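Protocol step 4 of 5: obtain the predicted structure for the target chain.
Materials: sequence only (see below). No template structures provided, no constraints applied. The aim of this step is simply to have a reference model before the mutagenesis design in step 5. Sequence pasted as it appears in the construct record:
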Amino acid sequence: MVLLVKIATFLWFDTQAEEAVNFYTSIFKNSKIGAIARYDENEAKASGRPAGSVMTASFQHEGQEFVALNGGPVFSSP
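Step 4 output (structure tokens):
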């Protein structure tokens, strides 16, 4: 029995996920934007993000699935 597992790569951004997805799909052939989830009023209150801003945005490149996440500045480089 062969089990095939697809891995989805998550890319963490502060607030630039939508811009990054637009950029990546504009420069790579055979790519497309998928679902975009935006913060509603309740999620915005809980997260401190503006309502209507992007929470996650998915895209594909050559059939590989990617998800861009606006996770905020939780991690910083030294």
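Step 4 remarks: Strands lie at 9-13, 31-38, 54-61, 64-70. DSSP finds two helices and four strands in the chain.
Proceed to step 5.
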